Amino acid sequence: MESFSLILAIVVVTALAFDFTNGFHDTANAMATTISTGAMKPKLAVAMSAALNLVGAFLSVEVANTISKGLVDESGIRPEVIFAALVGAILWNLLTWLVGLPSSSSHALMGGLIGAAVASAGFGAVHGGVLVTKVLLPAVAAPVVAGVAALVATRLSYGAGTKTEGEATRKGFRAGQVASAALVSLAHGTNDAQKTMGVITLALIAGGAIAPGSNPPTWVILSAGLAIALGTYIGGWRIIRTMGTGLTDLEPRQGFAAQTSAATAILASSHLGFSLSTTHVVSGAVMGSGLGRKGGVVRWSTATRMTVAWVLTLPAAALVGAGAEAVTELGDWGTAAVAVFLVAASGWIYRLSRREVIDHTNVVAEPAAEPSGVVTTAIAAVSPPPAGAITEDLTATIPAPAPASAAEATAPAASTAPPAATV
């Protein structure tokens, strides 16, 4: 085993920084519904999620092995390539956090790694079969499966509980929400913390610090677990607001159904080594639970923005990763320039976030009204005004009815005929 080089140390620190952003970016996945329904106080919720993320990091290394051994050709990867990949992933995480969009940290990391690997060694450095079967297909299938499961579970819970409505029932579902949120947090640590483990392990192999094909060392598992737990405790309040109140309105039994469905899907995928997006799964489950309640709604404008972010995540992070890799190939000064750019861009995004502070005191807010759709707006723009429309400064005089007889015509002004009306 060779000693650490400076670039390898930089990569490890950057990977842990990404893990930290992953933690606060994805806190909403476990705790948004629990906070929005009042099942737990915000600070207590994120503290519990942080602790379980750390525990989950030690449960499996299958996803880490998918990253370090399967996605790219580890024999042709330099530590600088992994550093460039992390730059793309971190910047995408921060941008989507700034606007409160729950995009996939996992896919940001995958995209950055793919873009940097292609820029360094060509398309042959990426294993297309692994990308399709363990990344892309789960990305499409997982939110659909979790959404359908949450929809069915929500309808069953309402159907079975029609005669048991009351405060005791609501308390029972709130307790169930706490348990299911704990399960999601555990699953998140099992799946997402492993991605950083895989990246660090890949960097150690590329730098000659450990042998090819090695599993993540214990210190890598511990440091990745601690980083994601700390990020989770900080709390990604912007995304918690979007997931908790911006996507749909949830009652405790809906939150319980959504979180249980999501946790089941995540734990199953982690066991199979699928690099699943926790964000995709939980978002799909929340939408399914929103549709499962009679009279429930999904704010499709928010869902559409989320979908656009999902679609853009892989290519956007890949482009940034490829650009960063092109600069690092210029030498040590190129790597230093990329590092400075990352720090400066991160600081700029943080300053922008201070213009509207969202924290545990205002994370549960009334959602904005659903804006008019494109079709509705277009119809309103071309529709003619209603017949007989009256403008603000136009008055019309309605004459009194004509007299029925000559006697009425000669009657004095104080007759019973109604006066003219002005509108």
Automatic annotation (TrEMBL):
Places the protein is found: Membrane
Membrane-traversing stretches: 6-24, 44-61, 81-101, 108-129, 135-153, 196-213, 219-240, 308-327, 333-350
Main location: membrane
Record-level GO BP terms: phosphate ion transmembrane transport
Molecular functions (GO terms): phosphate transmembrane transporter activity
UniProt signal peptide: none
A cellular component term, taken from the record's GO annotations: membrane
Pfam family of the protein (one): PHO4
Presence of the UniProt keyword Transmembrane in the record: yes
Membrane topology: Multi-pass membrane protein
Entry keyword set: Membrane, Phosphate transport, Transmembrane, Transmembrane helix, Transport
Domain of life: Bacteria
Assigned protein family: Belongs to the inorganic phosphate transporter (PiT) (TC 2.A.20) family.
Name of the protein: Phosphate transporter
Source organism per UniProt: Streptomyces malaysiense
